[in-house]
Amino acid sequence: MKRSWFRRVVVVVLALLPVCLAAGAFAGGPGIDTAGLQRLLQDAPEAVFLLDVRTPREFSGGRIPGSVLIPMDQVPGRLGEIPRDRKVVVVCASGARSGAVTNYLNDNGFPDAINYTGGVYDWERRRLRLER
Questions:
Q1: Cβ-count burial of 29 within 10 angstroms (0-12 exposed, 13-18 middle, 19+ buried)?
Q2: What residues have CB less than 8 Å from 102, skipping those under 6 apart?
């Protein structure tokens, strides 16, 4: 069991490493802050796909309403589940993992993917509603 998990993590890290290095190590590509995300969700919620790339445990502890969980290590194998006709806002705890995934998505046919730079930490810090 441990070996399978480790192998999956290594594969994902190796797949995302060139993207991260080219982007300046987790620079995160295009980004949106908390106020911008709130406006986007208020103005056109149907045009946004919130992709949460945290672990299932983190996700169950609290998520932005409407978020869909695809853990970071599963993104490369689940690209077909991510819509290409909506703006994809990638979410993690602080903006680092989501920045790497945003860069990966941008390089793999998702030019409208953007990084939520504040992450769930900032969302919660501002006392915005989380689903549990």
A1: buried
A2: 28, 29, 30, 31, 90, 113, 114, 115
In terms of pTM, does the model score above 0.85?
no
Catalytic residues: 92
Tell me the residue range of the domain where 87 lies.
Answer: 2-125
Reported as a single tens digit per residue, the pLDDT across 34-76 is 999 999 999 999 999 999 999 999 999 999 999 999 999 999 9
Query: Is residue 14, in this structure, part of any structural domain at all?
Result: yes
Q: Which two tokens stand for residue 53?
A: 């790339």
Can you tell me the distance from the alpha carbon of 67 to that of 56, in angstroms, rounded to the nearest whole number? 12
In this structure, the number of other CB atoms found within 10 A of the CB of residue 128 comes to 14
Q: Indicate which CATH number applies to the domain containing 55.
A: 3.40.250.10
What is the token pair recorded at 87?
């703006």
Q: For residues 24 and 113, is the Cβ–Cβ distance under 8 A?
A: no
Q: Read off the amino acid at residue 34.
A: T
At residue 73, what are phi and psi to the nearest 5 degrees? -70, -10
